Amino acid sequence: MKVKRFVVLSLVLLTLFALPVFCTSASGAYPDHAVTMIVNYSAGGGTDLAARALADAASKHLKEAIGITNVTGGSGTVGIAQLKNSKNDGYTIGVATLAPLAIVPWQLKVPYTPEDFEYLCAFGQYGYGLVVNSDSPYNSVEDVLQAAKKAGKMNFGATGYPQPFAMEALGKSVGVEFIYVNYADTAALITDILGGFIEVALCDQASFTSYVKSGQMKLLASATDKRWDSAPDVATLQELGYDVALLSYMGLCAPAGLDPAVLQTLRDAFAAASENEVYKEILVRSNLVYTYLPGEDYKKMVYEKYEEYKNLFSERKQ
Amino acid sequence: MVWSMLLDGFATVSMPENFIYLFGGIVIGLVMGAIPGLTATMAIALIIPMTYYITPTQSLIMLLAAYNAGTFGGSMSAILIATPGTPAAAATVADGFALAKQGKAVKAIKAALLASCFGCLFSSFVLTLIAQPIARYALKFGPAEYTVLMVFSLTIIASAAGRSLTKGLIGGCLGLLFGCVGMDAVYTTPRFTFGVLKLSSGIDLMVLLIGALAFSEVLKQAGHVRQAQNRPHLPAPACKEDSQFTRDDLKLSWKHWLRSSVIGCVIGALPGLGPALACWVGYDAAKRSAKHPELFGKGAVEGIAGAESANNAVCGANMIPLLSLGVPGDTGAAVLIGAFLVQGLTPGPLIFAESPQTVYNVYAGLILCNFVLFGVVWFTYRFFAAVARLEGSLIYPAVCVFCLIGVYALNSSLTDVWIMLFFAVVGFVLSRLEFPTVTMLIGFILSPIFERNARRALQLSFGDYGVFFRSPLCWAFWVITVISLVTILWGKRKNRELQDGL
Question: pTM for this one?
Fold first, then answer.
């Protein structure tokens, strides 16, 4: 008796929780029920906050709610893999950032290629820069390169790709070797710079702006094509004469094979949403760079970068 | 100046329009913490999007209250259904559930509540008074220092091993091995992932914890259902004292409260460690200094005191590096950064210039939230404790469902559910063979911190092992490690019951 009760109760409870899954049906004009947005990074992070604010704004134009699901792991690839495997009815869309789309596939075996997606838009840009501790003797990129030349080699910290490529390119331009020390956790990189355990870091703008603003760290150069909003006096590497600029975006994708009309509806909704003031405010406050790229442009960029990084990684293996 | 701002802070926080958020945070945190799978960190992450439109003070006190209450809430389910609601409550399971099985569930809850509130209160005062010097000292910890600190922490495995050191160490090694799953820290090469993409970011602590501790308990109980009569899940208290936190308990506990609070403060102030580690270090310290360490795991109030003060002390201490340096102490605090940013505040030294009163409101909120938490739980624990009167055949199916749903909710990943079920079997087999599952857990928590820092230290020194012996801090930890090992081996020689060849 007891055993039966145990089993039956388990089953009943499980079915109850599973019910809502079967209660959604698609009919009529798109959209007629809530859209799910998969965010490939964890809740509360910069990408997540920006995506939530954008989804909030877009839902006003779609006239349907947009629910967020955070599917994390595998350097952002797990969420994208799940997006690929979702139904292409327009009710599942997802954040697909450039790195897991174009870079990580050359490091990890992933079950998707850029062709598995439709591109809605790119909605924000990640910034990068070269920073040192504020007590550091280096005051310019030139100082760092000179010191590295003298020592023959120099460690630098970064939290993952594409940052190391910028340092490599920079080192190659003057013939010194920069050794990449991987910090998977950004907080550890921050403490090691503040504690003076690592000399330079190629870091992302979102996580490091506050330390530059507070004077705990010095920004030597911006490593993208734009200067940092918070440090308009600091030049980009390109302006300093080094041919290095990292570009990385947050984008929105849907599984391939979406109905063109649905795709257009979604693109229009997000294009309109990207003009929303609250969204812009949150993006800027999270130290991300406000950008908007239409779907086609983002698609072109992903395809180009996919090939570019393929070459960079295959060079490295030789 | 400090005191007047703190007083202003109290006045602000206790205004009804702010207090309601503090109260709300406590309730949300308590409920989410008590549900296995929903952690205190998740409570914060889910509240943040709601905070766009309220004031910074309201937002931050609500989040901190949820964080603190969530960390305590985890021990409620640890005591009543042997399932840690959050990773920080894992060390409370052994003694909490043992007490509950003796009909002393309410006593255990009260012990956990008092220890938790004391821990967080202690660290809040430390935060208010001496955050700056502590944070500056914490910066002296580089990869090498962390490595040696982890070597010391590994000795905890030996003292948590229980009767057989050999079995304990095997469990610890298993944990270290499971901690290696995922991309390696230097070359990002996938290890032990078997081609599963999800595994490339490693096994989630919560997933392993729920599998090995909670779901394996369900499996064990499923084996017992056949024999069980219509009797309640937990026995009723035998006498009035069983439900009270008596003067004797206080006498036993207060030293552990103090010691573990200090431990929690240190671990919270050092970025990257977190409450899941603090609870074990606190528990271990309590066990080593107790008069009757053999009672630990069999229902010692001291064990709860040691673990709970330590993990809740982290809640306040986490804010030390966050507010003085802008560096998050653990994942919970990392999520808090987002909350600061959307309010237009910069966590770190700048915030004292941008909005000093907010900082003092946060201090006041943190201190006050302990009293509110105490009050809320004091008046509601009877409802939670009612679980004890339900029959086991009702409880365990519910636990089983909560485990599955909770693990799925963590990352919306079915793969996680399978991993959890795998560890349920591992935990079940280990406990059948009388291996202490907790040593596996401790090994798993330490493994990535140890490896990451050891390899990083060697990379930074270009492969020179001397880096582990350079700073006085390293030497200090080596000395503590040796002392710890000697006391463990000495204890084994004295106690015949513990001798098993090693």
Answer: 0.84
